[in-house]
TrEMBL record:
Species per Swiss-Prot/TrEMBL record: Bacteriovorax antarcticus
Subunit structure comment from the entry: Homodimer.
Family designation: Belongs to the high-potential iron-sulfur protein (HiPIP) family.
Job of this protein: Specific class of high-redox-potential 4Fe-4S ferredoxins. Functions in anaerobic electron transport in most purple and in some other photosynthetic bacteria and in at least one genus (Paracoccus) of halophilic, denitrifying bacteria.
Keywords from the UniProt entry: 4Fe-4S, Electron transport, Iron, Iron-sulfur, Metal-binding, Transport
Protein name, as recorded: High-potential iron-sulfur protein
InterPro entries xrefs: High_potential_FeS_prot, HIPIP_sf
Gene3D superfamilies associated with the record: High potential iron-sulphur protein
SUPFAM superfamilies linked: HIPIP (high potential iron protein)
Transmembrane region(s): none
Annotated ranges, domain High potential iron-sulfur proteins family profile: 42-116
One Pfam family, short name: HIPIP
Keyword check for 4Fe-4S: yes
Length: 116
């Protein structure tokens, strides 16, 4: 006796709900992998430097994982900050409003971080 697989309306919508639940997590992990820390700063751009000027006042670090600031939460980076202008990104760096439009790395962090 062969078992027929019949896709009825109820099972179809069950699969749609399951897929809709899983897809956002998959996309988030792919996006996180795509946002790898850049190796070098873009040439000819004003880049924020840890411990200098505004970067010092904002407790900026080029790698969010190295932040010792109590405000830092796991997963917070410049790439997901409201002030990071990713439309003008150049090789993993983009201008930051809080840093006077100096370029910051996508995996950096400062105490002005505000999630998009």
């Amino acid at each position: 006796m062969t078992e027929e697989k019949n896709l009825n309306r109820r099972s179809f919508f069950g699969m749609v709900v399951a897929a809709a639940t899983i897809v956002p997590f998959v996309l988030k992990s792919v996006k996180a992998e795509a946002a790898a820390c850049p190796a070098t700063a873009p040439a000819g751009k004003a880049v924020a430097v840890e411990g200098v000027g505004m970067a010092k006042g904002l407790d900026y670090v080029a790698d969010a994982k190295s932040s010792k600031n109590a405000k830092h939460k796991a997963g917070d980076t410049c790439a997901n900050c409201k002030y990071y202008n990713d439309k003008k990104a150049d090789g993993g760096y983009a201008p930051c409003t809080m840093m006077g439009m100096k370029f910051v790395t996508n995996c950096g962090w400062c105490k002005s971080h505000l999630t998009k």
